[in-house]
Each structure stands twice: as C-alpha cells, then as structure tokens.
C-alpha cells in the first residue's frame, strides 16, 4: 500500500512582508486596504500565523508618538492580568537569573536605569499590591496608570520579528489591528513599581481563586526598536521633571538637554572626567572619594557659574552653550589647579573629605558663586541677554545663536568691573587654609555633636591629632556664607592655622 501524496502550501515567509519605513521598518500587513493581503490572512498563508508558539497575539493600536523625524513606534495593548505577566515576563523586583538567557540584556538595563526594591520602594510595592488585591476583592475601583515598556532594537531585528496586521487605518498615525509580539521580555520605562506589584498580585491565591488572571485588565504600552541610548534618555525624560527620583541617575542619562551637554563638554579633559557619581556607581561620601562630585551637584555648580544661581536647568538652552562653555571649563580647570593634588590621592589614610572643606558639595557650590562674581565683566552681559531674549516657534538654533551673539556685543561695553578679579580669587584660594577643623571654618559650618551635646572629635590618622568634627551642611545659608567670606575684605581670616578648641 502506497502513502498518498499530500500537496503542501507554500507559506509566505516573514521576510516577504514589506517593511514600513513610516513605522521604523516594522513589517505590516494591511488587510484593510490590500485585498491580496486580506485573502492571505483569511486563508492562513502567512508563516507567522503558524508560529504562535513564538509570538503573543493581541489586538491593539500601533501608534506614532512625538515629532518627525524622531517618531517613537508604540503599541498600546489592553491585556488581562495573566496576559500582562505572560507578555512582560520581566519582574523588576525579581531580576532574571543567569539561566534566563533572553532576559540577561534586560537585567543589564535594569542595573543601569532602575532602583533596587529596598526601603521606601519595597513599601510602595507592597502598598500597590494591596491596592490591586482590594480591587480584585471588590473593595475599590482600580485606577491604574499605563505601564510603559520597550523591546530593544535587537529584538526588533531578530527572528521572530514583530508583525502588525492592520484592520483599520483611517488615521495614518494610529493603526488598529492585531499585533504579533515576539515572546521576549519587556523592560519598564515607567511603572516599575506597579509592574512588580502586578506580578505579585498575579501569584496570589486571591487572584487565582477569583479568576482575576482573566478578568482584571491593565493598559500596557510597548515601544519598539529601542537602543540603549534611547532607553536611558527615556528614563531621564520620564523621571527628571518634578519628581523625587534619583537626581544623579536622571542627570547622567539625560543626554539631550542643554545642561547635560554643557556638563559633558565642560568636564572633558579635566580631573572631573570619569569621577562624577551617577547614582548607581560609588557615590561622593566621606569615605568614598573616587568620585569628586555627583552629577546633580556638578550641574548646580555650573548653573552657579553661569547665573549666580538665578537660573534653573530648563532656562539653559542649546544656543547658550557656545557662550558659557569657556567659563565653565575655566572654573573646573581652576579647581583642578587649586585642589587637584588632594583629590588625586584617594589612598591616603584620611580621605580628603575628612580633611578639607573643598571636598564637600556646599563649598564647591560656593566656589562656583564666587567665580561668577569674579567674572562679572563677562558673565554679567551673558546673563542679561539670557533674561531679556525672546524666542518664537519659528527660530532655529542658528537664528537664536546669532541673535544672542549680536545682543551680547551691544552689552559687553557696559559690563561692570568685579570687586575681586579672577587672579585675586585664585590668589585667595591658594592662601586659604582649607582644613575642616580650623576655627574659621567651624565658625561658618558648625560642628557635629556627641549624644551629650558636646563637640564630637575625630583622630586624624595622618598626624594623630584629635580634632573637632566639622559639619558639612549643604544648605543655601552655608553656601552663601562661604562665598561671602571668600569675597569679603576679611577673607584673610580664612588663612589662619588655628584649630577649633576641643573644649
């Protein structure tokens, strides 16, 4: 008996589906406007229709977000709790182990851009989980924000690739249809704590018994074709405006703002390059001195240099950078010349922050303010033009830069001579005794106290001296006092070598 011959259909491979340039090269099947494509879908002629084990299939919207030419390619889905955990796969409070090969890249991104679930964040996760379970119990209505996530450009290009089947395309920027998403982890751009709480809620007995895995719904937005730089910028943009997120981490990953560009250009080739704490690496503390400052402090220093603290980060624009960068670099180079020797030696028995005032954020901010005053003949006109300039929606960066330059030329002739010149400031910094335990610094910063209210003391390993432990409060009052003393006629009080009495 012979085996009958069964004809095999030739399936349409993924590579034969055209890449749509308007959607970043995503492969799109438009069955609403292409009759042949519709017939192929109805007759299951596409290979991806037979590879469901490789992809999640959900209906949703494919959207273009933002401005041309840098559109973000996003898919908005409305999964159930069970579908959500199945699609996302990546629980940020329980990062994947080494055996989860597909998620290792996500773990690397997590370590760079996300906070650990400790302290307040762990409490927030527990509170969020309780909120979700109360909604499942019927005790409250759940008002959950959209969880936004992304898949990397590598996932976008590797097999299996994402595919979108369009049902409706009346709006060219918002397509409704069916999304075939590769079964790979989704990293959170925003909603990390909520995601962790949803994972925990999904594993609870309440969710399992009540059927909430199928009846509790959330909103998930996934951005496609995201590279490492875009993910970092997304984190910075989403968490850097009006929030209490890690300011140093946000500042480090913000690569598009004018202040971040200024910071990165100003430190290049100076002692600060490679020694700015980003919120994930070793910080800038009494004992951790590899980093001289953190990113947030450095940005405040530069704003003090430019505007004497009268401008916020959002006031600095890209067309200002050519005019203020030379002075920011000059300031950092001045600090390196004055204090670089102490900062370079990070292996001494007593850390430079234990020994010197110039190791602390309040002093560095004060020095930036003092530098601004010593450079008033140059920085004064720049600040005046910044305050007076008006822009329109039609101005290009070149237009603004030329207008700024023209306005600056008119004001430079009216610049005032500073009370203290830059050379005089440098001379003063060189003559000042910067030891923290000196009496003149204790009078400004105060001292730490023991439990009984007396002066706290420490023993210096380098000399064996028992000295008063100076405070280092990073407050506007202390910053202003340091600046005023350095610029005052009584600045020589800071050159004395008398230590604060212990009793």
Structural write-up:
The chain is an alpha+beta fold and 503 residues long. The chain is 42% helix and 14% strand. It contains 20 helices and 13 strands. It has a nine-stranded mixed β-sheet with strand order 1-2-6-7-3-4-9-5-8, with helices on both faces. Strand 12 (457-459) and strand 13 form a beta hairpin. The longest helix has 24 residues, at 321-344. The protein is elongated, with a radius of gyration of 30 Å.
Q: Give the biggest beta sheet.
A: 9 strands, mixed
Average pLDDT over all residues:
85
Topology, number of strands: 13
Helix content: 40-55%
Biggest sheet, spatial arrangement of strands = 1-2-6-7-3-4-9-5-8
Helices and strands in order, then pairings?
Blueprint: E1 19-20, E2 26-30, H1 35-42, E3 55-65, E4 72-77, H2 81-88, H3 104-113, H4 120-137, E5 147-152, H5 153-157, E6 163-171, E7 174-182, E8 187-190, H6 192-202, H7 205-210, H8 212-215, E9 220-226, H9 228-239, H10 247-253, H11 258-267, E10 276-277, E11 293-294, H12 295-307, H13 321-344, H14 352-355, H15 361-374, H16 376-388, H17 397-412, H18 422-431, H19 439-445, E12 457-459, E13 466-468, H20 476-487
Parallel strand pairs: 2-6, 5-9, 10-11
Antiparallel strand pairs: 1-2, 3-4, 3-7, 4-9, 5-8, 6-7, 12-13
Helix pairs in contact: 4-6, 9-10, 10-12, 11-13, 12-15, 15-20, 16-17
